[in-house]
Write a structure and sequence with these properties.
Number of domains: 1
Strand content: under 5%
Distance between the termini: 46 Å
Helix content: over 70%
Order of helices and strands: HHHHHHHH
Radius of gyration: 19 Å
CATH topology: Ferritin
CATH architecture: Up-down Bundle
Largest sheet: none
Length: 169
């Protein structure tokens, strides 16, 4: 439950930071500093993707919490029950790619799940050997430079939202 609360609180914090950053980008566009705005938008895009990851992790933590009894069903199980497997795999895989200082409880949950199902299972999940981690989680932790068209779309939306005249490319 603490993981769920921490994830939600972090989402709110990141959303507030993103809003402030968008305001700053609108100001940059207004001043004709499009290249600086472009660089900052890349950061916002990556933060938006991270926010989506946090939302998914919150859902998976809720799933594991609601179906907690299935985790304890079999004492020495080497794999989780299929009803919680996606959540367990997602938490183990994605938590390793988040900041411990921001999501301490999530990392503790990850450690507990890894201990519960053993080293071999944990390594297989971390490498996504059996494809048990959903693609949407894998894509969100794989940080890439955003496509120029996506950057332009973000800039256009920010300019529009803040009533800034900006000739989109």
């Amino acid at each position: 439950r603490l993981s769920i609360k921490r994830l939600h609180t972090l989402q709110l914090k990141k959303e507030a930071q993103a809003k402030a950053a968008r305001r700053e980008i609108a100001t940059l566009l207004e001043r004709g500093k499009a290249e600086t705005a472009r660089v900052k938008v890349e950061s916002i895009i990556n933060e938006d993707i991270y926010l989506e990851l946090l939302e998914l992790l919150e859902l998976y933590c809720e799933l594991v919490n609601v179906r907690f009894g299935l985790l304890d069903n079999v004492r020495n199980a080497k794999e989780p029950d299929p009803a919680v497997a996606e959540g367990v795999c997602s938490i183990i895989y994605a938590a390793a790619r988040t900041e411990v200082s921001e999501l301490k409880e999530l990392h503790i949950l990850r450690e507990l799940l890894m201990h519960k199902y053993g080293r071999e299972f944990a390594i297989a999940v971390m490498e996504n050997r059996d494809g048990c981690v959903p693609d949407r989680i894998v894509r969100k932790v794989d940080i890439k430079t955003p496509a120029p068209s996506l950057v332009d779309a973000y800039l256009s939306e920010i300019a529009k939202a803040y009533n800034v005249e900006w000739p989109s490319p």
